[in-house]
Amino acid sequence: GDVLVLQGIRKSYNVGTPVENEVLHGIDLRLGAHEFVALTGPSGSGKSTLLNVIGLLERPSAGRLFIDGHDTATLDEAALTALRGSTIGFVFQYHHLLPAFTALENVLLPSIIAHGVATAQAEARARALLQRVGLAQAMGKRPGELSGGMQQRVAIARALVLQPRLILADEPTGNLDTASADAVFALLRDFNREHGSACLIVTHDPRLAARCDRVLELVDGRLVADTPRHARGGA
Ligand code: ADP
Ligand code: ADP
Questions:
Q1: Which of 230, 99, 101, 109 has the alpha carbon at shortest distance from 160?
Q2: CA 27 → CA 6, 9, 140, 215, 217, distances in Å?
Q3: Contact 216/24 with Cβ under 8 angstroms?
Q4: Which residue from 35, 124, 179, 209 lies 20 to 30 Å from 189 (Cα-Cα)?
């Protein structure tokens, strides 16, 4: 089934004040399991807002949002937090690693948040993921001892450790050089292929968008294009 369904999603800021403004004007979208989708659009078009609404960090002002079959309007804050933890993995451009903790400890955080302790299974998976992303030797290092690309790979391992059905990435390669951006993108692609996790990736990089199954374009808070890969020339 679809891991994500949006029906007429609207989001306004500063509701009830003179500067109230609607940023998302009725978004309809379905995302199937296994889909690997790029979200593009000009700065200020609402991409981050859309990702925050889908990621249950902000409530929509109107419309319906289903995550993994759950009607999110019926859930209270505790249930939303639980659904977020069990279903969604986030990757941000600025990775928000905790500086006082090692790479391994940072990757284990979602497991600690979800279960109160890092489960043995999560620890095994965290070690395997860090190895997989080329950081076997860096597990005990703190973020400040790692390069930007290495930190971003830690952040991706952290997003994947609970094997979420939906991965939301907001410009995950935005501050990386081309080689690191390709490596980070390849990690997400591999995980999508191996685990069938759906991915929605905000990117300004047309090169990376061209490697997704589907490209969405948001302009002024409206989805103006939804292009499957086979419909684009050469891809
Ligand atoms: P994008 O990610 O495409 O650059 P954003 O979602 O960040 O776009 O922003 C879309 C619009 O929403 C912008 O006009 C921005 O100023 C506005 N906006 C975003 N967050 C807030 C907020 N917390 N309060 C008020 N306006 C906001
Ligand atoms: P990127 O940040 O672009 O991903 P890499 O992580 O591949 O770059 O690092 C590029 C090279 O620089 C590697 O040989 C890496 O070991 C080294 N390097 C970068 N930053 C650091 C650092 N803070 N400490 C140790 N080595 C570093």
A1: 109
A2: 7, 5, 43, 15, 12
A3: no
A4: 124
Task: Identify which ligand lies nearest to the alpha carbon of 144.
Answer: 2
In angstroms, what is the span from residue 180 Cα to ligand 2's centroid? Answer: 10
- In the reported structure, the alpha carbon of residue 91 is separated from the centroid of ligand 2 by a whole-number distance in angstroms of 20
Residue nearest to atom 5 of ligand 2 (CA): 149
Q: Is the CB of 149 under 6 A from ligand 2?
A: yes
Give the pLDDT confidence of 92-126 residue by residue, as tens digits: 776 689 999 999 999 998 888 877 888 898 899 99
Give the predicted TM-score (pTM) of the model.
0.84
Coil, strand or helix at 70: strand
Dihedral of the CA atoms 159, 27, 39, 23 (nearest 10)?
-90
Closest ligand 1 atom to 45 CA: 3
Q: Which ligand is nearest to the CA of 149?
A: 2
Kindly state the tokens that stand for 191: 């995980």
pLDDT digits (tens, 9 = 90+) for 12-32: 999 999 999 999 999 999 999
Residue list, ligand 1 pocket, CB within 6 Å: 13-14, 23, 41, 43-49
Helices 148-160, 120-132: axis angle to 10 degrees equals 140
